[in-house]
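Hi R.,

Here's the input for the NAP complex you asked about:
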Amino acid sequence: MEALILDAALKTATVERIPIPSPSSNEIIIRVDAVALNPVDALYVFNPLGKTGRVIGSDFAGTVESLGPHVPFLNPHMRAGQRVAGFLQGASSVNDKPGAFAEYLRIPHDLVWQVRDNMSLGDAAAISLCALTAAQCLYYRLGLPAPFSHEWSRKANTSCQHHLTVFIYSASTSVGLYAAQLVRLSSKVSNTPIRMFGAASPSNHPMLSSPPYEFAALVNYRDPDWPAQIHSLTSGQGVDFALDCISEGSSVAQVASVLAPHGEMAVVRSREGKAWEVEEGTLPSEPLYGAVWEGLGEETEYQNMTLPASSRARQFAVSFYRFLSSSDEMPIQPNPIRLMPGGLNRIVLDGFALLGPGTMEQRDGNRTEEWMKPVSGEKLVYLLKADEKSN
Ligand SMILES: NC(=O)c1ccc[n+]([C@@H]2O[C@H](COP(=O)([O-])OP(=O)(O)OC[C@H]3O[C@@H](n4cnc5c(N)ncnc54)[C@H](OP(=O)(O)O)[C@@H]3O)[C@@H](O)[C@H]2O)c1
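And here is the predicted structure with NAP in place:
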């Protein structure tokens, strides 16, 4: 099969032929139809952690090809031919595991969700990693009420309040768009009105004010006084919860400045990774950080840290995927996608050029092709063998 393989010395990835994987007893083999790009995929090709020869890439959607011998007993509903989506870690760690940018992959049977017939696999590929990231931040770390049951015992102190305020910095990121939808679901299941504020470019404000996001008010993160605008929108109270979907440079300090005295915030990048800095002692409380990889339930080594294997985080991911699979209608909408031309062979040349080597500031804005305009409120998606398979 063809796969996109890391070349750590040249800091790139190239399409190579490797054997089709075989499933272990509780795994399934998936024929991959679509993959979506995440900044982290590009980051660790341009700054390799893994060894040459690793399959790169995280988000995928595809069709179940075969089942490991125990899967029919563990999951009697799982069948070859089902359409599913999920993510793997790819080369974003020291751990030696293959990623998703390949014609076939193997994954534990319970770390995928069922894609409904009325959803394209291109749309489905854009959901798993960023939606789970948003769910972890809001329900698992900040403790907002979740629309599904899970074993994480931390609960935010929301009971004595008639309404809550939530602020999402960089609301048009893939993570931010799912976070907004999950905040709305939290409000619905807990019967607690939530006023949601966001920061994004004004060109995205009309989309963000509309369903399914419905921000109550939006500010432009390029306005130097945006924190004052948020304070004024909350009548000087500050917000109860905040999620910084960029966590770069001064963003963490700025987002912390709009928190109410009891407020809490989550970040998507770690202090250890040094994407953001704050002066010692200036934050009211330490921002809550975690990595989506925890959902895979294995020890992960990256960014000079070791995230221990967490069965609780894995169980949370399984519960979230069941939630996506089991209700009559898909509970969240996929983010807008940009279908990129070509397949695996164009990902580094085009997709990774757009995502850049690490920070939003380093993104390439010099290419003139229609599909190379800067990423704003959408996910880059590639169909594998686009000419042979339908979307
Ligand atoms: N902890 C985890 O496990 C985890 C998981 C997933 C992602 N992440 C991290 O989360 C971050 C966001 O990922 P993503 O996939 O959601 O990003 P993305 O969709 O690629 O982000 C694109 C958005 O970034 C916004 N943006 C660009 N420059 C900005 C700036 N200087 N300040 C504020 N916003 C800016 C743009 O907003 P406008 O167009 O509105 O200007 C654009 O819509 C990345 O750093 C990623 O590595 C972490």
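One thing worth noting: The two ends are 20 Å apart (CA to CA).

Cheers,
M.
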